[in-house]
Input
Amino acid sequence: MVNVADGTTANDSYQRHKELARRRQAILSMEGRDIYPLPKCKNPLLRESVSKSFRRFCEVVFTKSFYLEWSNDHLEIIDRIEKSVRYGDLFAIAMPRGSGKTTIGIAAVIWATLCGYRRYVVLIGANHNKASKLLQSIKTIFQTNETLADLFPEVCYPIKRLEGKGNKAIGQTYQGRQTHIQWTGKSITFAGISGICKQSTIEVAGLQGEVRGGQFVSTDGEVIRPDFFILDDPQTDQTASNKNQNEKRLALINGSVLGLAGPDKTITGFALVTVIKPDDMADQLLDHKKFPTWQGKRGKMVYQWPKSELWEKYADLVRESKALGKGYQLATEFYKKNRVEMDSGAVVGWVQRFRKELGELSAIQCAWNHRIEYKEQFWPEFQNEPNEEFSEVEIISQSDLEEKTNGFDRGVIPHEADILTSFIDVQGKLLYWVVTAWRSSDFTGWIVDYGSWPEQPSKYYTLSKASRTLSDKYKGAGLEGRIRAGLFDVIDMLGNRKFTSLAGNILPMKAIGIDAAWGEVTSTIQSVALEHPFTANIMPCFGRGLRAKDKPIAAWGTKPGETKGDNWIVRKNEHGGRHMIIETNYWKSFMHSRLNIAIGDKGSLSLFRPKSRTEHKMIAEHILAENPKNDEANGRKMTIFELKSNKPDNHLGDGVSNCAALASACGAKLQEVRQSARLVERRSPAPRRKTSIKI
Output
């Protein structure tokens, strides 16, 4: 059909209509993609202020994150980061968990790009996924932070118009010209608008993948290469334990990462790290002597722990309070009453850091709560001091230890016990003694009795404040004379005493060990062992706190007449007698492992029934006077024990662990319960031999 007026056909009209619709849609689409006009900055003076000061930027833009007063550590880090961004530097930061370390790092990236200090930032994580999570956090801030949008609209508004959809970036324009914005899972490239804002980009990389320097051409024609990087926790628990992995990652950081800028170009950046293991990648990077090009800051939650022994009681109350469903209530009440004494000597990294919602009153209380809750993980995550009190040996709490009592009265032995051992710990003022009974078939043990010589009027006392001493009992005698006389009397008491079961069976004392590591007095102790009527049962003992780097007793050679067992060896001495060398770290691990086995299970160790609730307080403190630590060298890992910083008494604890070693020498068997004991020295045990020796 033909239109007579203009000569067009129906099909021509349809095509014209279609073209007009296409043009209208194109105009609408162009209007939708075009971001003109840009909003104006709502506070130019504030913008200028935050652009000049990174601290001011954090306080203004990240008010929801940084609402507490800064610590000195924070201020130092902020200052160092600003200098790194503006002038160039390499800075490694280790801060306690929860200190805002990563948020500060994110803020630094945003500040550096928005203010034009850096044009090409690379986010590097231990792997690509971790780095991507950091990028996602940055994206969220650009999309949701209203203060940022008000101060830097030329950057934030183009992002807002994308509505979180990366495909919209392709067609975005400003007055008809493409902004070349990019919004992907691997990178952000900010809009470039002539005369308003220069392009910059942020991209991600994984340290375990290939880290190579890229480049991009900005809308103003400038070729941009990486000029800033941030390393966020570039190691894992697994890589931190591997020497080769540590070396590999350090080589990547100081090679590929520092080479991102290209040949003969320098790059600036910082690393957010956590020290997981001694001498791991983070630990080395923080050491300016090992890596002079890097500056390091190692922050701690606590720089100096308080000296008060009341914190041990506090820890027990925390566990008790939580068991009753009362949170920290009981412990906080105790702390409130004794706060002056308990706070004495404490130096914390961040005074403002404590949880008011949990009733905490101070930063040191918060630190102790974290220490109790996180256990071994507290030291690397909050102190950047791995292994400070870390061990695979689980340590029983003092309250649980005091209450781990069997049904036997003091001095009564179980009918199934067949080995009775005792140990005398020699001190200048007192002789501490412990008596233990053992079932040789599975090394189940019972602490039968303990005390000191001379006997004290109180059940609880310390060595320094003992009311009756060897000097009091043996007036006029010198040190050697007092110790000699005291040993004769204690051995008489232990050797002649009848330890009887409920059925009336008497178990004779199999072995009496004596701490002989006393310098000039050693010869006196050895002579007592030879001269006393019970000489056949007496064994002078020398404790050796061997470490992972030392040759284990299992690898020691023996001479004719010598006997070697599980981490002990009996040798002849120059006086014609014999002595026993005991690997103390092993036997302390053994003791603690057995204390964690429930009464009734094979291999458990328990205390006699007390007559009062606090009767076992002293021995519990002695047993728990040392902190376990992991020690590693030459492919060996083991637990070692170090006396706590306040130097508490540990003499009865030494007595218990040495009694166990003596029981081993008397025939108690370890092999059947080695796995349940959870001993941590990771090596194949020496071939088992019969070790029942005549003490």
Remarks:
- The CA atoms of residues 119 and 200 lie 4 Å apart.
- The chain has three domains: 44-135+196-299, 303-382, 398-677.
- The two ends are 126 Å apart (CA to CA).
